[in-house]
Amino acid sequence: MTGxxxxxxxxxxxxxxxxxxxxxxxxxxxxLCVPKGREEGSSLALSIVEKAVDLDxxxxxxxxxxxxxxxxxxxxxxxxxxxxxxxxxxxxxxTQLKKGKDVAFLTLGDPTIYSTFFYLYDKLLELRPDLxxxxxxxxxxxxxxxxxxxxxxxxxxxxxxxxPANYLDNLKTTLEMFDTVVLMKVNKVLDxxxxxxxxxxxxxxxxxVSRAGMEDEIIYRDIxxxxxxGLNYFSVVIVRK
Amino acid sequence: MTGxxxxxxxxxxxxxxxxxxxxxxxxxxxxLCVPKGREEGSSLALSIVEKAVDLDxxxxxxxxxxxxxxxxxxxxxxxxxxxxxxxxxxxxxxTQLKKGKDVAFLTLGDPTIYSTFFYLYDKLLELRPDLxxxxxxxxxxxxxxxxxxxxxxxxxxxxxxxxPANYLDNLKTTLEMFDTVVLMKVNKVLDxxxxxxxxxxxxxxxxxVSRAGMEDEIIYRDIxxxxxxGLNYFSVVIVRK
Lengths: 241, 241
Prior knowledge:
Two copies of one chain form a homodimer. With 241 residues, chain A is of the alpha/beta class. Chain A folds into two domains: 5-136, Cobalt-precorrin-4 Transmethylase, domain 1, CATH 3.40.1010; 141-240, 2-Layer Sandwich (Methyltransferase, Cobalt-precorrin-4 Transmethylase, Domain 2). The first copy, chain A, has seven helices and ten strands. In chain A, helix 6 links the parallel strand 6 and strand 7 (180-184). In chain A, helix 3 (80-98) packs across helix 4. Strand 6 (160-164) of chain A pairs antiparallel with strand 6 of chain B, so a sheet runs across the interface.
């Protein structure tokens, strides 16, 4: 196996927020692999990158990522078709690497923050325990959202919590214990969040950033004015006490 | 006032982790302002940036940042000398902007993650409520540390907590409630952390990354082998259950 696999965080959406390293490694890779999901369409990742790097002549692999977790703890091992899909993507990448081609796997934001790549990572290592994978960090959408709203996520001894907002258990306790709480992907649970923040008198401490750094970015300083059904998947609520 | 003030996250230390935007705005700015603290020496920020951008002819302002918080909640308003220092830095920057010069304030990692810039931000807005400040996000040392250790910080519905480790209260509760706990600046409290993680049977789930992305980076897979006194200020422990 001679090709190199790199997992690249391409940042939140603004092509200028790609790092120099991301640009260099994408240029050096002959194959680009992009996840093709319902919400994170491959067209989005590619449309960001092609504004900063010439993609002419690159081979593009669009991998349809299963939405459910199929490996590790809590996995549904009985669903073989999902496991088959992961296997298929892993095999496709390994085939390219065996041909000596460098493969760049593109991921929005930063690879270590809720990127589905890490499901694939386990599968790749299962098939090739000696595979070396280079992970290139990127600007996370969380940091970009805070920057766009001109707020700090934490200072001095302050504590920060990051929660996928579809996991509302203990949200009240978390809001009590932490100085800053970042709620990811709030589009489906915004009404419940507004209700709880209202009860805790925290509406004035919340800001919502939708599609930070993208062309259609919106910053909502009053989250009660947002219509839940109009809110995008890439929306973050930051509660800063 | 015609000059523009930009606050730029320069990433964790690897000059290639600067974003295209950071490079462009630094090139366009005639004045660079760098914090000069005990731990975050200005020489460090400048030495990273000068590997990616030609700094010849730039005016460099080294601002000695007070270590204690002097504004906002919990501030020590009786210590006038600290407040004077913040005022002095703010005035220095405003003077440059008034001359029409673009000023770039450089901060390691990402500006919204524990950057002392936000103390200055309040002071600047106090003096000039209409001042527009551009915050350019960067790769946070947290994301870079996780990438270097090849671990995800969160997947699916997992919850992430980020704690400055000198704030050990409730650490046990936080470790119980969250899937991933990131402990910042652990160099002074490592022994206490190892003791608690040992009691909770979490030693095997912890990894320590010191100076992620810098030339002298070290990754410790067994944190009990680390000598606390040898550990650097830029050290992060990630506990991933």
